[in-house]
Amino acid sequence: MVSITQCRLPKAMVASNNQGFALLVVIMVLLLASFLASQLSLDVRTEQRLAANAKDRDRAAILAEAGFNIALFRLMDKPIALEAEGAYGRLVAGRPYIHPLRGGQVRYYAANESGKIDLNASEPRLLELFLRYRKLSLEQAGVVIASLQDWRDPDNLVRLNGAEQEYYMHLPDPYIPRNGRIEDPGEFFLLRGTEFLAGKFEAEEAFTVHNPEKGINVNSLTPTMLDFVVNGDEARRQAYYDARQLQGALNAAMTRQIIGEARFSELEPFLRYEDGTSSLYYTITATGQAVAPGGTDKQAGPGLTINALVRILANGYQILSWQERYS
Length: 327
What we know:
- By secondary structure, the chain is α/β, with parallel strands linked by helices.
- It has 2 domains: about 55-115 and about 280-325, GSPII I/J protein-like (Pantoate--beta-alanine Ligase, Chain: A,domain 2); about 115-205 and about 230-270, Ribonucleotide Reductase Protein R1, domain 1 (Orthogonal Bundle), CATH 1.10.40.
- Helices cover about 45% and strands about 15% of the residues.
- The chain contains 10 helices and 9 strands.
- It has helices spanning about 10-75, 85-90, 125-135, 140-150, 165-170, 205, 225-230, 235-245, 250-260, 260-265, and strands at about 95-100, 105-110, 115-120, 205-210, 215, 270, 280-290, 305-315, 315-325.
- The strands form 3 sheets. A 5-stranded antiparallel sheet has the order 1-2-7-8-9.
- Strand 8 and strand 9 form a beta hairpin.
- Helix 3 (about 125-135) crosses helix 4 (about 140-150) and helix 9 crosses helix 10 (about 260-265).
- The chain is extended.
- About 30% of the residues are buried.
């Protein structure tokens, strides 16, 4: 009979088993420590990226405000002094300008509201031409125009292809039409039929409620409105800017030469050629973009765009609206 003492494992074997278990524990601890270290490193990199983005966004906001102030200064520059013209050149309404500043660059333009389509006063035909340029069919353009008229009138009678309260209240996100004069260009994208244009341009770049005269002033076109007038022709767009820089205000003959006979004949009933302006209201659009030291545009951080409606007064100015959006 074998005694219990005879069945005991050798001491060397017991020590070997203990060492194997200890090695397994060490490996598990190292794996856990490695995982925690990698997670900590990821968290640190994320925090650094968030901090850098926040810094770039703040810098972009400061640069955009700087661009707004440069444009405002140039708008308000007195004709006798012309201080801004010596530093920046003649201000051509609607022309985008780019200026490098410390930490980035600013792009801005300033244009009088007389160069936009007034949603309360302009001829339906002018709006139709603009919508057709924006690739809407004749039928789709008719829906937008009828819906605009229904939006403005005080009743609930629906025009052919138009829309009144019943239509808008059955939308997924219902709302009530104004049934009065439009107060903000952004209302345009609330109209029936404008969903095909969403995201293609900003309403305030093409429309206004501060153009008391019918038609549009050729000498105060925003980039969006200039694209419409020259029918998207890049060469004619540049010719317009060159002529404005050289000649100042354009007349009918100059405009005909720049945009071509066919386009001029189509738009002639809706064009004005004011040297001054019939409106005291101006749009200033300024975009600030942060750039790392020694960086390029491709390495630029997020940009911020300010779109402001300003009323120029005899002794100052008044900011009527201020919108900001990041790109």
